[in-house]
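User: Sequence recovery, please. Input:
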């Protein structure tokens, strides 16, 4: 099993190559606009380092959101192109799954920009609800129970993808998970 997994939803870019029981990863702090220039060269470097050719990938995975709108589009587009070109099976991971990894309960929070927050309620290790919280309502969130970072994105992504692969949890199409309309779409409605 050879799987490439990518996360471009935050200010950190992460690429993971799973090859049997071996995992190679590259992770960089890229800010809000570094994903597009790094994604393809980093994937190429990771595959070369792992001795894997793109045509030999059995699966590809991408974090589909929520998170940065542009980041989601970059990751989903690049990984979709690889899937089309190789016939690799597709695994979708959402950002809340990364945050929920190895946790049992609480509120998971992701920065939605402009003071807003994407949240998910976690009970018994399962995400039971999600919500977009506007800046004005942020004070209603239970600060002492909010989780905003994963233990390790690489570890979480690696294990989630391996589990989904073992469960044959594949998708036909990567559907971006935005949770709200983009700023451009909202501006168009005015």
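Assistant: Recovered sequence (190 residues):
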């Amino acid at each position: 099993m050879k799987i490439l997994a990518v996360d471009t939803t935050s200010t950190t870019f992460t690429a993971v190559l799973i090859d049997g029981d071996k995992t190679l990863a590259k992770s960089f702090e890229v800010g809000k606009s570094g994903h597009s220039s790094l994604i393809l060269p980093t994937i190429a470097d990771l595959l070369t380092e792992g001795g894997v050719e793109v045509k030999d990938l059995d699966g590809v995975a991408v974090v589909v959101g929520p998170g940065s709108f542009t980041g989601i589009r970059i990751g989903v587009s690049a990984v979709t192109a690889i899937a089309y070109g190789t016939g690799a099976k597709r695994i979708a991971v959402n950002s809340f799954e990364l945050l929920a990894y190895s946790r049992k309960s609480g509120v998971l929070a992701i920065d939605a920009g402009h003071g807003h927050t994407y949240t998910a309620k976690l009970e018994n290790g399962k995400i039971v609800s999600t919500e977009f919280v506007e800046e004005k309502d942020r004070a209603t969130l239970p600060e002492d129970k909010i989780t905003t970072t994963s233990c390790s994105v690489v570890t979480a992504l690696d294990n989630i993808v391996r589990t989904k692969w073992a469960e044959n949890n594949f998708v036909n199409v990567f559907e971006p998970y935005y949770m709200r309309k983009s700023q451009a779409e909202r501006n168009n409605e005015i």
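The domain at 2-94+152-188 is CATH 3.30.420.40 (Nucleotidyltransferase; domain 5).
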